[in-house]
Amino acid sequence: MTDDFIEKAKREAVQDRLAAEALIVDVDGFEGPLDLLLTLSRTQKVDLRKISILQLARQYLAFVEKAKQLRIELAADYLVMAAWLAFLKSRLLLPPDPEEEGPSGEELAAHLAFQLERLQAMRTAAARLMARDRMGRDFFARGIPEDVTKTRIVTYSATLLDLMQGYARLRTKDEFRPFVMDRDSVFTMEEALDRMRGLIGFAGQWTDLTSYLPEGWESDPKKRRSATASTFAAALQLAKEGKVNLRQDGTFGRIELRQKEADHD
Amino acid sequence: MTDETEQTAAPEEKSLFEAPPMGEQERMVEAILFASAEPVTVRELNDRMPHGADAAEALVHLRKRYEGRGVRVVKVGDAYAIRTAPDLGFLMQKEQVETRKLSRAAIETLAIIAYHQPVTRAEIEEIRGVSVSRGTVDQLLDMEWIRFGRRKMTPGRPVTFVVTQHFLDHFGLESARDLPGLKELRAAGLLDNRLPPGALPTTPEDEDLVEETNEGQSELFED
Amino acid sequence: MTDETEQTAAPEEKSLFEAPPMGEQERMVEAILFASAEPVTVRELNDRMPHGADAAEALVHLRKRYEGRGVRVVKVGDAYAIRTAPDLGFLMQKEQVETRKLSRAAIETLAIIAYHQPVTRAEIEEIRGVSVSRGTVDQLLDMEWIRFGRRKMTPGRPVTFVVTQHFLDHFGLESARDLPGLKELRAAGLLDNRLPPGALPTTPEDEDLVEETNEGQSELFED
């Protein structure tokens, strides 16, 4: 009988060892330290509410120790949990120090027990949920749904204001030519050409081109730029037509203009 | 085939080997027809139902049960399906109302018709300075904001357009005469440019609305 | 709610201005629900039915009519759908859809969201003791079993997760209140948001967090 007992104890020891090794081999299969703790807690074979956290901490630390022996790399969070459990273990074993601040070992243990119980409860709930009659497996939706045909009704809206503005726009468009851009500061080439043609008869002498700028266009830089460009272009046009000669005494120098007939004089 | 089934079904039901009661069979047919993505033949029903079941008979009961209901069991070829009762088809339509702003071309065309009615297409084009697309006129006709008026007594007897009561209702007008004239538009700040005096009528050509043979119009368009 | 509906329905029926008789309304609801694979809300039913119809009352009649039949009228959140009776699932091998195999992490995460909603990622992680991988949440979002809820009024205003109508539909739940074992879990305090002792003195934020959670839950679970 004693032999039997020893046999049995041996067998259990072997089983425990195998179980522990299996745990370690499976370490990747665990969903973190809390999951491992929950699995370990089952070996206590008691209600989770009566679990001995101290014993659980020992089991966990033994597991980590074993993993180290087997040179299995444990993820950091397993080691963090080991450190915390070692701390918890000492708190639980040592008489409470009245000087020490913070929660007591019992409080910490109670919270860990709560976490384990909650995780277990969620697992049970998840299993019950997945075991329910499920759509597409146990019950089914309509196989030939008749789609609601959506008839899109487009209504157009316009206000009286739109109408009146539309009409006003039409009836006044001849006056203000809405698509012509604002040309207040634009002196067109046609205008310049017109002006030059009128003035060219008086250009018997070489005259600076800038003196042909129209009155009132010399001071405002914007106007001046436009008038200079168009006057210059008009001068080129007149030269092309053989009506004037142009000369410039150097790069960026003054451009002068003279009536062509003057040449023959 | 149906006869055959019925003949064999009777003894089988007596032997009550496995066949569920007819009420159950009816439930089964109901569920299969409901969930199936296609109409189901009697043969297929029998294949899927427990041994000894008689889908054809169950179908007879089921069809009767759905008589006058919102959906019915209909025969499609040699198969069966559940379908909406034809008189309720209107429920399967959902109307989506979408409001869009009328295009500028449409607004202008509408405005010309309102101010100058009765007005021909050629006259509209003359005022707008661009041709009027068929779509624009169709849209306005479709919206029932304009309709055809009397033909003009001019060569070719062109059709004219006038605005409708619906138009007046929409814009909250008693009559087209109530449309503000250009003077009023300007006074209301809707026109900000100066207007050459006498160039434009100051009120809509509303007299024309009553008298379709008009001088005002010819003045406006035939110069 | 049913009482209310009935109370208001009576005078309405008397005035019977345009509303069709209740039998007709029942047919209409029947047709609409049969035609749709997705649950339809009472509001949508009323929108689609003629003016003055009372879909809620028609639904009461319809549900009764389909009791014990091959298909049934089920409530899904605030909507209704027709689904086959679960005991006939064995006939539907052909219709069975291979549901994606969910990982243990995904199943647990789903359960935590369902029972603790609205719940933040941090809270899920606290319960599971591991970080929640992005893929897990993405998968559940993708299956339309969870969606984002309101942000928590805690520092960082984290997003929360809640389960969807599709989730309720899939698991045959009328509402999240009907989750299996919910009452027991709540009574056992296992759905409380219990903070680690002394980890932090209870700051105002933490109080908010607890309050928020309770609020959220009461919204979801208590009518």
From TrEMBL, chain A:
Any single Pfam family the record assigns to this protein: SMC_ScpA
Protein's name according to its UniProt entry: Segregation and condensation protein A
Instruction: Kindly give the InterPro entries that the UniProt entry links to this protein.
Output: ScpA (IPR003768)
The organism is Cognatishimia maritima
**Could you tell me the superkingdom of the organism this chain comes from?**
Bacteria
TrEMBL record, chains B, C:
Among Gene3D superfamilies, the record links this protein to: Winged helix-like DNA-binding domain superfamily/Winged helix DNA-binding domain
Q: Where is the composition biased (Acidic residues)?
A: 204-223
GO aspect biological process, one term: chromosome separation
Superkingdom is Bacteria
Q: Which Pfam families match?
A: SMC_ScpB
Q: Per the record, which residues fall in region Disordered?
A: 1-21, 193-223
The protein's UniProt keywords, in alphabetical order, are:
Cell cycle, Cell division, Chromosome partition, Cytoplasm
Q: Name the chain's protein.
A: Segregation and condensation protein B
